[in-house]
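Inverse folding, one chain.
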């Protein structure tokens, strides 16, 4: 006997909550984070009833579930109250600013990216909790508006070039010391390891004899 086709309840109860640019900061990753934040406060069985559609959270439930629908709608509305202030987590920062993980770590360490504190969560499938820095959305918005990542990248390039120049100079001085080149003195009596240019030709002319 053929199995009876499953009947899908019509999701006639619908409500949506548009997400403002101040909340999402133009990031799809941030939008997904807001969705997960709202779902986390809902009963597990009802979480899939909420999704993101064209920049808004949308709740869909079947006819006959009016009481549950209103309860879920109240939870979502409460979650979204003041959502613009929800701390920005690392993967959202990287998406909003279009930066790499290495850049985020470097700029956080040297203070260019300001931490707003830390957050600890227990991830499914992991024995230990994970602690990470979070960021104030208004600080991240300011960094984005001023295009600071471009400026910081240029600063990093200049710093790297300067470090390479210093390292090359140090390596050259080290090699000069190992080769046993004579130590010289400047007219003021200061010691220097710079080689004497043209010394061999000068000696061959017999001017020192």
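Residues assigned per position:
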């Amino acid at each position: 006997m053929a199995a009876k086709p499953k009947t899908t309840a019509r999701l006639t109860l619908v409500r949506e909550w548009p997400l403002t640019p101040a909340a999402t900061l133009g990031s799809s990753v941030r939008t997904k984070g807001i969705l997960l934040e709202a779902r986390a406060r809902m009963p597990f069985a009802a979480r899939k009833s909420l999704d993101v559609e064209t920049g808004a959270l949308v709740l869909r439930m079947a006819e006959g579930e009016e009481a549950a629908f209103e309860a879920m709608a109240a939870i979502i509305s409460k979650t979204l109250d003041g959502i613009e202030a929800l701390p920005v987590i690392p993967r959202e920062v990287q998406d909003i600013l279009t930066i790499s993980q290495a850049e985020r770590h470097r700029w956080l360490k040297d203070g260019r990216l300001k931490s707003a504190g830390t957050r600890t969560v227990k991830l499914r499938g992991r024995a230990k909790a994970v602690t990470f820095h979070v960021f104030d959305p208004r600080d991240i918005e300011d960094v984005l508006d001023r295009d600071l990542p471009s400026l910081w990248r240029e600063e990093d390039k200049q710093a790297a070039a300067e470090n390479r120049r210093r390292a090359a100079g140090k390596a050259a001085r080290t090699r000069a010391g190992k080769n046993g080149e004579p130590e010289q003195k400047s007219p003021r009596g200061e010691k220097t390891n710079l080689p004497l240019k043209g010394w061999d030709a000068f000696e061959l002319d017999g001017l020192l004899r």
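The helical segments are 21-24, 28-40, 66-80, 90-97, 101-109, 137-145, 148-178, 199-204. Residues 87-179 form one domain.
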